[in-house]
Design goal:
binds P-hydroxybenzoic acid, 2 domains, Rossmann fold, 9-stranded mixed β-sheet
Length: about 400
């Protein structure tokens, strides 16, 4: 028996127990769908709730739940049970955590992760087997739309290439000729820096030094001294969450803010610009979201999120929200039958998320958003939109064959 049909059988049995009274009492014989409909849908979540990315994991989880709550707290009429594990941003623990959700918890859907290294580890388990559909609500690992792509893996966030590539041209357009890149040394940092470099050099710039900081370390002094001595025109950088707060503050404290402008994919200031304070003011970044995007869905989303959680929404909560929308859309189309994997996949493949706070987006052939990348600048603690840096940008999906 395949994992999926085991899963359906489990729901069948649970559902049958719940509806046995009804079936015995009258002549009504529930169909498989009707019985299954009585059992909750299990959504397994593997995200960071501790360490430098804790804010990201919480933002995604909050907004995923908010989206489903706004639709009555159900997926196609079925209650939802969330099983959330803290990934601890640990790649070595990722296989155990993933298997725990699939085999022990027998979840119907997997949502996660934040971290590119964990995404690769999860994809190696989920992709080749008949495992549940996995929705990546953050991790940008290019391999998810490349050699690790799989029919049952979708992403509602971005590939590392997407928000970084346009940033290279932004620096060149601002007249910079030389640049130092600095990022955490793992999949996300390496892939984002490579994408920014590719486009910067395509437009006449030169990356003169690539500094790689062990993840999740935040001792930046020696690297900042090195940058000060190199004196590039600009610095292009990836840090996120707690590490981004520290890096942007240290950069300003080292006296570099006014002499060597800092750029990067928008994670550098996203969800953390208030904590960074004056150190973040004026920083230009590129990302698939900005706080003041002028659409009704965004205005409503930000107001609802603030009301529900007492804090501002950010791109990570947008990705969680859109994950909820994708689940709602797919489950509605199959009438709540989590066993209808092929149909669920085909609905997700054709999905348009029309009410996304980032603006409407479509799923690409490689199962990744085709989306606008915005140019933003921090003003009074908010990442405000300056324009569109790349329209309907689609990941090149090099090496992906769905098979
Ligand atoms: C990633 O590891 O893919 C990652 C983590 C944090 C971000 C963006 C990407 O903000």
């Amino acid at each position: 028996m395949t994992k999926k049909s085991e899963n359906s059988r489990r729901h069948f049995i649970a559902g049958a127990a719940a509806t046995a009274g009804l079936a015995a009492a009258g002549s009504f014989v529930p169909t498989r769908f009707a019985i299954g409909a009585a059992a909750p849908v299990k959504v397994g979540i593997l995200l960071p709730y501790s360490g430098t990315y804790a804010m990201l994991g919480n933002s995604i989880t909050n907004a995923l739940k908010m989206r489903i709550d706004q639709a009555g707290g159900k997926l196609a009429g079925r209650a939802v049970e969330y099983v959330a594990l803290d990934s601890e941003m640990s790649v070595p623990k990722a296989p155990t955590n993933t298997n725990k959700l699939i085999k022990k918890e027998r979840v119907d859907f997997l949502v996660g992760p934040v971290h590119s290294g964990i995404a690769a580890a999860m994809a190696k388990i989920v992709g080749p087997r008949n495992a549940p559909i996995m929705i990546v609500p953050n991790a940008g690992h290019n391999g998810i739309t490349g050699s690790l792509c799989a029919s049952n893996i979708f992403r509602t966030s971005f590939s590392n290439w997407q928000p970084a590539f346009p940033g290279g041209k932004v620096m060149a357009d601002d007249g910079h000729k030389t640049c130092v890149t600095i990022a955490w040394k793992y999949g996300a940092g390496i892939q984002m820096m490579a994408a920014g470099k590719e486009n910067f050099e395509k437009h006449g710039g030169k990356v003169v030094k690539d500094i790689q900081v062990p993840f999740p370390k935040v001792e930046f002094q020696a690297f900042l001294s090195e940058i000060a001595s190199i004196k590039p025109d600009a610095v292009f950088s990836f840090f996120s969450g707690g590490g981004a707060v520290k890096f942007v503050k240290d950069y300003a404290a080292a006296g570099l803010k006014d002499s060597i402008p800092l750029y990067g994919p928008g994670f550098l200031t996203e969800g953390v610009s208030k904590a960074q304070g004056a150190a973040a003011e004026g920083i230009k970044t590129t990302l698939h979201y900005a706080a003041n995007l002028d659409n009704d869905a965004n205005r409503k989303f930000r107001a609802d999120y603030e009301k529900a959680y007492g804090t501002s929404a950010n791109v990570f909560s947008v990705q969680g929200f859109d994950t909820g929308s994708l689940l709602l859309q797919a489950m509605a189309a199959v009438g709540g039958d989590t066993g209808a994997t092929k149909d669920l996949i085909s609905v997700m493949e054709g999905a348009t998320i029309a009410d996304s706070p980032r603006g409407a987006w479509k799923m690409s052939k490689a199962h990744n958003p085709i989306q606008d990348i915005y140019l933003r600048r921090v003003k009074s603690g908010e990442n405000l939109v300056l324009g569109v840096a790349a329209k309907d940008l689609e990941d090149p999906a090099t090496g992906c064959s769905m098979g």
